Amino acid sequence: MSVKKFPEGFLWGGATAANQCEGAYLEGGRGLANVDVIPAGKDRFPVALGQLKMLECDNEHYYPGHEAIDMYHHYKEDIALFAEMGFKCYRLSIAWSRIFPNGDDKSPNEEGLQFYDNLFDECLKYGIEPLVTICHFDVPMNLIKTIGSWKSRKMIDHYVRYCETIFTRYQNKVKYWLTFNEINMLLHLPFMGAGILFEEGENQEEVKYQAAHHELVASALATKIGHEINPEFKIGCMLAAGNTYANTCAPEDVWKSIQKDRENYFFIDVQSRGEYPNYAKKMFEKNGLNIKMEKEDEEILKKYTVDFISFSYYSSRLTSADPQVNSQTEGNVFATLRNPYLKASEWGWQIDPLGLRITMNSLYDRYQKPLFIVENGLGAVDIPDEEGKINDAYRIEYLKAHIKAMKDAVNEDGVELMGYTPWGCIDLVSASTGEMKKRYGFIYVDKDNEGNGSLKRSKKASFDWYKKVIESNGECL
């Protein structure tokens, strides 16, 4: 009998994003970004969708990302805790506007560059490999105001310059890179995902897919430049994943589920296979979407594909071809029917560990490239007991079931998996709701939804559990 194991050198760790944990939003020369003006509360979704225009902060709203958990001033303490858990890898993002405050500055901001130098040095001191997301929903505000963000082809040059700067600076400190976080989120939350605002009368679908084209070309050029600067770099793409199930075995429902999955595969089909799939070309044609492309784009996309496929997985989805049934979808970022066979989290996210194995197999069959799970986790309300301890057995149960499914995909199905970095390894601001009480971490941060709290860090029960998982390379769950 073969023992179920993860490969030697498997990259266990955790994941965060600058705009949800760093804070210090105007310190160290950092410029304003789209993520800084997305408030908590009822206006969060309209702003994130690009429907309510907000380009400055005001006094009427609370902006949770401004301080977040202030990792900017606590990173040494936080990385020491990650090291104590035994992290082999830490996924983080660089805040674009910390490096180029306006996006089009003549030279980069040295204070911002130095901050990440210090942060990477701290990781490497403990033998933790940084996995860096180049653009995790960050767009310098100046580029939104002056050129309309990714609506404009000029964004490609600004992004490429940013990539050249950080690839050169950190070429001996960072090996693993992701070009864009959840690139498909551009279709679902255009302002949060890509700084896109819609003007009256614009064809919104055309705007989104034109912006997507610019991001796809930019991603390919980043892959090209990265490999030129350091051939050892491993550069990946990243999608918000989760297979869509058919509500019934009616062929119409099955066909609808395939179409839903294609919406998400579209980006990765281009980034991994190097060309626009025929179903996308037909969709553009059918809907009269005129996507402007330059002569050289086809060759750029073809030549510079990614080295690996990374993805977030929280839940599977469910769809029906029947408009009446489909109108009952849950109101999350990815609308989905309620699956009667699954339990759900407090925020209505359906818990489906087998769905992770299904998703891994779908992606690996489709692309035959190594996979990396860079987000997975349970957002829950954690309440400290009288002694201030948090027994988050529900989180351990969730992660245990997903790691088992991951192990099956590797051992039973032969899926190639590089690593696993569960989301929000330390509590941070929720991207979808702007809340602090929707916690994911192994480490509790004393802060509430209104921004009150000491920011004190403390270990949850899941901290010691995950430490054992890493120590045993996934044997001891």
Structure description:
The protein is of the alpha/beta class and 477 residues long. It has one domain (11-471): Glycosidases (TIM Barrel, Alpha-Beta Barrel), CATH 3.20.20.80. 39% of the residues lie in helices and 13% in strands. The chain contains 16 helices and 14 strands. It has helices spanning 18-21, 44-48, 71-85, 96-99, 110-125, 141-147, 154-169, 190-194, 204-229, 251-273, 278-286, 297-303, 323-326, 353-367, 393-411, 461-471, and strands spanning 11-15, 89-93, 129-135, 176-180, 234-241, 244-246, 308-313, 317-319, 343-344, 350-351, 371-375, 417-420, 443-445, 457-459. The strands form four sheets. An eight-stranded parallel β-barrel has the order 1-2-3-4-5-7-11-12, surrounded by four helices. The protein has a two-stranded parallel ribbon with strand order 6-8. The chain has a two-stranded antiparallel ribbon with strand order 9-10. β11 (371-375), α15 and β12 form a beta-alpha-beta unit. α7 runs parallel beside α9, α9 packs across α12 and α14 runs parallel beside α15 (393-411).
